[in-house]
TrEMBL record:
Organism name: Nakamurella aerolata
Record gene name: cutA
One Gene Ontology MF term: copper ion binding
Cross-referenced Gene3D superfamilies: 3.30.70.120
Phylogenetic lineage: Bacteria, Bacillati, Actinomycetota, Actinomycetes, Nakamurellales
Segments forming a coiled coil: none
Protein name: Divalent cation tolerance protein CutA
Residue ranges crossing the lipid bilayer per the database entry: none
GO-annotated biological processes: response to metal ion
Amino acid sequence: MDDRVHPKGTPDGIRAPGSTHFPSDVGASKPAPPPPNATERPIVARTTTATEDAAREQARAAESLIVVTTTTATEDAARELASAIVQQRWAACAQVVGPITSVYRWDGTVQTDQEWRVELKTRASLLPAIEAHLARWHDYDVPELVATPIVDGTAAYLRWIVDETGVQ
């Protein structure tokens, strides 16, 4: 048997790391190669750089970021809430999504209505201000207010949310 390696590893295209032998060489007179050194790590494709990872961690550590969701009965009401909250810098941005169909229980009956959803990207520390604003200006008796943590994102986008919700 010779020591040549198939151009793509073994005949089926896979070769053990550090191996120059075909699987059929197992048990041959040549000893198996030693296992990779514990300090050696396989090269893994990364989608971000170490600098981006550090910036993302810094943005997350500096402030917990959230998406606040609410719904309104009209597109105009959704736009007004979104605009006022972004204007106050309580959110970096807001998306108005709709119309959507909501099915919910109210006053003991199941109801179906058309609504518009508002999604606000912000700091968790600003949630009380947003909640107070919704309590005063929202068109519902019990406005939806759901805060979802942002667990990841690009470093630049997370930093932008922090920067745009800062006190000026």
